[in-house]
TrEMBL record:
Entry EC no(s): 2.3.1.48
Protein known as: Histone acetyltransferase
Bias type Low complexity, positions: 12-24
Source organism per UniProt: Eleginops maclovinus (Patagonian blennie)
GO terms under biological process: bone morphogenesis; epigenetic regulation of gene expression; limb development; positive regulation of transcription by RNA polymerase II; regulation of bone development; regulation of cartilage development
GO terms, molecular function: histone H3K9 acetyltransferase activity
Bias (Polar residues): 1-11
Active site: E532 (proton donor/acceptor)
Catalytically driven reaction(s): L-lysyl-[histone] + acetyl-CoA = N(6)-acetyl-L-lysyl-[histone] + CoA + H(+); L-lysyl-[protein] + acetyl-CoA = N(6)-acetyl-L-lysyl-[protein] + CoA + H(+)
Localization, UniProt: Cytoplasm, Cytoskeleton, Microtubule organizing center, Centrosome; Nucleus
Domain named Bromo: residues: 700-770
Chain intervals with Basic and acidic residues compositional bias: 390-406
Length: 792
């Protein structure tokens, strides 16, 4: 299942207390060793799961009650020769004897594990994961000094211990289950962005969304202070309420980061305004102080964003957090009449993040003779694939499936004029450079610059059963498996590992400083004419630089080289927004018979497709668009210079003339004005009825008419009728047509136009409904012209 990193959720530069998740037992302090602790647990689990089955039984026997006859009350097997504490690293592991008696009840190890004889390896590995989580929590209980935290750890320890004994899944028993408050912090910040910044241009609003992402990420990885620490700092606060939220946070957000046998939730998705109020002031102060202290370490492209825009964003948000009358915390919030509330996961929500990232200064050279399967993106690296990913197609190079040049259309700008204008902007100084943090810069502009400087590289890699394995390739594949596992916590890690290392799958990897920071795993089906994208992820700390877009553009170029022009993927709710930005849609161009039985189906996911155009150099597409804009700008300036001629005024009105044709005004035609076409009005009511009925039937049968078939239901669009004063739909128009309401074509066209206008007023431009309105409107006017009701 494909997932995307979307927009950045955090800043890699800010390292204030609370940013890095603290390991259980940290007692509310900074978790500087958290990442290492989590990694050590993962390594231990991997080692234990790869052990022989008898060794696994011995480990589980320690936590399994005795099953011997006589109702033995022993709750766990104890070895006669317990290992030394701490265990010696040079000691060789002894063979496991299932007949070895228990030191406590004298029954054998086999009597303790009889219930595990027919248990599958997958279930055994799951239980072993819980065992290591139990041992880790046991250590935390003894190390933790705070009483409240220690009590929570001990409760979770008993819960996991019970799960092993009963061979069940750990289920937290609580009076309430997540989410604990609505709207959530994530929803509230979404509402804040809409409430305060919906009037901004899309590029500037994108910057605000990046700041919101950054803020949400800080909360998700913030280390809450213990209730006792808070009582000392804020004596008059609601201590009981904070303690309840602190306990929930430990159980559902903090501990599961390290004990993955427990279900994990993001703090911003299950907590609301109450928790945000309790941490906002301290968090804001520490974040800004840390940013000021480390300003010299910040990347230049991040400095303005963090030091200038982020403080202003936090100040405005603080007012809404502590205001008693702020509308953003209302569940019925609607951000004005300009377009309703944008769905939460398409604005500032991203999938669970993976961290951290590294910078690279030089390209990697690979030896193709010993690697599994690799295609470096840069020309300085060795090439195994015939066409490296990053190598740009030359203009003279024939494109696969190249179509004949399209005929010139009447009204096209002459090529002579285009060449003349191009000559004025070929000088780089003549084209204004956009800052990487500018609202007008392309999403992948920063990534493209870094690739040119050699900071990042793109390689298509894969496992191979036919060639000698290359250590670097295998390390990259392991790195990709880690990135995908962090980004897709609901996807089994074994499944991710199997696909990443499957020789039939390849992965376009994003490399920085020799380390993997993102990638797209895919499988090509050349005979069927499409490729399935399986996983897509970029580590969160780097996402604002446009790596996700640039990664997808490289993948498109790679497939055009291999003459595969269709992508298919199953996207979950987090990834749909990302894939839409990359040109994917739910309108699948590949015939169903071509992909059914070939691609993997995922429950709760949406099938999306993308059709590639072989004429487009995707990695340079934004540069081309930028140059085209400059050409249009120059052409407009030329046209304006031509029409700035001053024409004599009209003197005919002084002579008693009351009205003149518009086209007789001097200079009006030179501006490009044309008379509005007038359509014929049908005099015969029956003929008019028949014509309008035919047009309405065509419109209702169109594939994009589905959102407008019936009146909008209040339950589906809360607040719709507060925004739209004069609603209209195709069902109402059909009823009006039957009652002979439309006595003129203008009445009919006005109602139809109202449907499209209402849709664009209520829905945001990137929504499916907005696009349907545009396409259906174009179709409607085509039919109107064909019927002769307006001039073509």
């Amino acid at each position: 299942m494909a997932d995307s990193a979307g927009i950045q959720q955090g800043s890699p530069a800010i390292g204030a207390a609370g940013l890095v998740p603290a390991a259980p037992g940290a007692g509310g302090t900074e978790g500087s060793g958290a990442a290492g602790g989590s990694a050590r647990i993962a390594v231990k689990k991997a080692q234990l799961r790869s052990s022989p089955r008898p060794k696994k039984l011995e480990k589980l026997g320690v936590y399994s009650s005795c099953k011997a006859e006589g109702a033995c009350k022993c709750n766990g097997w104890k070895s006669q020769n317990p290992p030394p504490t701490p265990p010696r690293t040079d000691q060789q592991s002894s063979t496991v004897n299932l007949q070895e008696p228990c030191r406590s009840c004298s029954h054998t190890l086999g009597d303790h594990v009889t219930h595990l004889e027919n248990v599958s390896e997958e279930e055994m590995n799951r239980l072993l994961g819980i065992v290591l989580d139990v041992e880790y929590l046991y250590t935390c209980v003894h190390k933790e000094e705070d009483a409240d935290t220690k009590q929570v750890y001990f409760s979770l320890f008993k819960l996991l211990r019970k799960s092993i004994l009963q061979m069940g899944k750990p289920m937290l028993e609580a009076q309430e289950s997540p989410p604990f408050e609505k709207p959530s912090i994530e929803q509230g910040v979404n509402n804040f962005v809409q409430y305060k910044f919906s009037h901004l241009p899309s590029k500037e609003r994108q910057t605000i969304m990046e700041l919101a992402k950054m803020f949400l990420n800080q909360i998700n990885y913030w280390q809450l202070e213990t209730p006792s620490q808070r009582r000392q700092r804020v004596p008059n606060d609601d201590a009981a309420g904070y303690k309840a939220n602190y306990t929930r946070w430990l159980c559902y957000c903090n501990v599961p980061q390290f004990c993955d046998s427990l279900p994990r939730y993001e703090t911003t998705q299950i907590f609301g305004r109450t928790l945000l109020r309790s941490v906002f002031t301290v968090m804001r102060k520490q974040l800004l102080e840390q940013a000021r202290q480390e300003k010299d370490k910040l990347p230049p492209e991040k400095r303005t964003l963090i030091l200038t825009h982020f403080p202003k964003f936090l100040s405005m948000l603080e007012e809404e957090v502590y205001s008693h009358s702020s509308p953003i915390w209302s569940q019925d919030f609607l951000a004005g009449a300009s377009g309703g509330q944008i769905p939460i996961h398409t604005v500032i929500s991203a999938p669970p993040v993976a961290r951290p990232l590294y910078y690279s200064t030089s390209p990697v050279s690979l030896d193709p003779s010993i690697c599994g399967s690799v295609s470096p993106a840069r020309k300085t690296a060795s090439v195994l694939e015939p066409n490296p990913v990053g190598e740009k197609r030359k203009p003279s190079e024939p494109l696969p499936h190249e179509e004949n040049k399209r005929p010139r259309v009447v009204g096209d700008i002459p090529m002579e004029l285009i060449n003349e204008v191009m000559a004025t902007i070929t000088d780089p100084a003549a084209v204004p450079e956009t800052s990487l943090l500018s609202a007008h810069s392309a999403r992948d502009e920063a990534a493209r610059h870094e690739e040119r400087r050699g900071v990042i590289e793109f390689h298509v890699i894969g496992n191979s059963l036919n060639q000698k394995p290359n250590k670097r390739i295998l390390m990259w594949l392991v790195g990709l498996q880690n990135v995908f596992s962090h980004q897709l916590p609901r996807m089994p890690k074994e499944y991710i590992t199997r696909l990443v290392f499957d020789p039939k799958h390849k992965t376009l990897s994003l490399i920085k400083d020799g380390r993997v920071i993102g990638g797209i795993c895919f499988r090509m089906f050349p005979s069927q004419g499409f490729t399935e994208i399986v996983f897509c992820a970029v580590t969160s700390n780097e996402q604002v630089k446009g790596y996700g877009t640039h990664l997808m553009n490289h993948l498109k170029e790679y497939h055009i080289k291999h003459e595969i022009l269709n992508f298919l993927t199953y996207a979950d709710e987090y990834a749909i927004g990302y894939f839409k930005k990359q040109g994917f849609s739910k309108d699948i161009k590949v015939p169903k018979g071509k992909y059914v039985g070939y691609i993997k189906d995922y429950e709760g996911a949406t099938l999306m497709g993308c059709e590639l155009n072989p004429s487009i150099p995707y990695t340079e597409f934004s540069v081309i668009i930028k140059k085209q804009k400059e050409i249009i700008k120059k052409l407009i300036e030329r046209k304006q210079a031509q029409i700035r001629k001053v024409y004599p005024g009209l003197s005919c009105f002084k002579e008693g003339v009351r009205q003149i044709p518009i086209e007789s005004i001097p200079g009006i035609r030179e501006t490009g004005w044309k008379p509005i076409g007038k359509g014929k009005e049908l005099k015969d009511p029956d003929q008019l009825y028949s014509t309008l009925k035919t047009i309405l039937q065509h419109v209702k049968s169109h594939q994009n008419a589905w959102p407008f078939m019936e009146p909008v239901k209040k339950t589906e669009a809360p607040g719709y009728y507060q925004v739209i004063r004069f609603p209209m739909d195709l069902k109402t128009m059909s009823e009006r047509l039957k009652s002979r309401y439309y006595t003129t074509r203008k009445l009919f066209m006005a109602d139809m136009q109202r449907i499209f206008t209402n849709c664009r007023e209520y829905n945001p431009p990137e929504s499916e409904y907005y696009k349907c309105a545009n396409l259906l409107e174009k179709f409607f006017y085509t039919k109107i012209k064909e019927a002769g009701l307006i001039e073509k």
